[in-house]
Amino acid sequence: VTMDQDRNIIGDGAIAIKDGKILGIGKAADMRGQPAKRTINAAGKVIIPGLINTHTHIPMTLFRGIADDLDLQDWLTRFIFPAEAKNVNEVFVRAGTRLGLAEMVRGGTTTYCDMYYFEDAIADETKKAGVRGVLGETVIDFPVPDNKTFSAGLEYTERFIRKWQNDPLIVPAVAPHSPYTVSQEHLLEARGLSDRTKAPLIIHLAEAKTETEFIAQKYAGQRPVEFVEKIGFFNNRTIAAHVVHANDADLDLLKKHDVGVAHCPQSNMKLAAGAAPVPAMLEKGLRVGLGTDGAASNNDLDLWEEIDTAAKLHKLITGDPKVLSAPEAFAMATIGGARALHMEKEIGSIESGKRADIVIVDMDSLHQTPMYNVYSHLVYTTKAADVRTVVINGRIIMLNRR
At 35, is the pLDDT very low, low, confident or very high (cuts 50, 70, 90)? Predict the structure, then answer.
């Protein structure tokens, strides 16, 4: 299932990989003449591009289930921020990252986009695990576990970006937390660092009603997307998480600046933040991918659940069962996710010249029998446990679940 521009599906297909990239793709019969050092037999299985998780906070696996069934502000201010202040250090971050990486690999996620603290340690663990990451150091206007001031956070981020730039797996980024936790002046400083280093710029945006009210009160009735656009925050490497409370004019602004959007349906549902206007985003040609958010608000890193939920949620919201079809939902987890991260030239589909991020999925479990349509199965029946083998950057990271 290539997810290339024409959405080609190759029956009895084969892929040749060399030096971390896809060398060729086609019918197995046509490619058997090429000698290979190693061959993986995927007969009877489905081969897909690696899944792309466009928004998470990976060390928060260690906060899984500590505070549930609360509204966003309550959840953040009464539980999450205090828990982080008390517990988060580099050792915590490394342990949570390892756990999260193992969970994501098991479920066929090959690339993820992160925002957290001690992001240098996250990059180190991600590289060791052989996983691809767009990793943003979070900068915020109050003392956090790794940096006590915004300026110290920005200095740390610059060192982090310079250290990891040009790594084959790690894309370092700057991640100002949100427009309600970072001042206008500091948002622009973060944008300036992104401009200087050509690093991605990641932010939570238009996530909750409370944020919309706060921004309107503080900035003369403006909406979050409108406000950050007006101050000149957006550049062509911006990735905005959630974007739940956005109207038509907001979406036009995001499109104008080519902003990537991370849609996190399950987290938004659980915190009753609302449902992002994804059908309208796709209609306008925005870059939209899927994210799990952190395991403290989801409570897992399973992208298969997000694919299934996204397809069903928007049918319910619009009252139209034809909205967000199975092929569209699956695209959001693969090539759509790559577009959201501005990485579609490198990942997101199985095409010659792209990075070899490939997942092999079993299709013979009871819940997958029989199979009539591969997209239907990938969206509505496949579970993380059906993933057998994961290849990232041409390296076998998991073989037959091991």
Answer: confident
What is the C-alpha separation between 14 and 24, in angstroms, rounded?
8
Q: Token pair of 246, please?
A: 């956005």
* Cβ neighbours around 236 below 10 Å, total: 11
Average pLDDT over residues 382-402: 98
The partner residues of 239 in beta bridges, in order of sequence, read 202, 260
Dihedral sign for Cα atoms in the order 313, 101, 144, 173: negative
Question: Whole-angstrom Cα distance, residue 347 to residue 356?
Answer: 8
Stretch (H or E) spanning 328: helix 326-333
pLDDT at 73: 84
Three-state secondary structure call for residue 383: coil
Going by C-alpha positions, the residue among 382, 360, 374 that lies closest to residue 14 is 360
- DSSP annotation of 361 reads E
Q: Give the C-alpha distances (Å, rounded to integers) separating 84 from 66, 154, 294.
A: 12, 19, 13
Task: Give, in order, the Cα–Cα distances in Å from 234 to each of 212, 229, 356.
Answer: 18, 6, 31
Nearest to 232 by CA among 277, 171, 285, 190: 190
Closest-CA residue to 389 (of 98, 108, 2): 108
What pTM, to 2 d.p., does this model score?
0.98
pLDDT in tens, 57-99: 999 999 999 999 988 888 889 999 899 999 999 999 999 999 9
Q: How many C-beta atoms lie closer than 10 Å to residue 345's C-beta? A: 11
User: Cis ω on the peptide bond leading into residue 370 (within 30° of 0)?
Assistant: yes
Alpha helices for 48-183 (secondary structure H): 72-74, 81-87, 90-106, 119-129, 150-164
**pLDDT tens by residue, 135-193:** 999 999 999 999 999 999 999 999 999 999 999 999 999 999 999 999 999 999 999 99
Residues 6+ away with beta carbon under 8 Å from 55: 113, 115, 239, 241, 242, 262, 264, 291, 292, 293
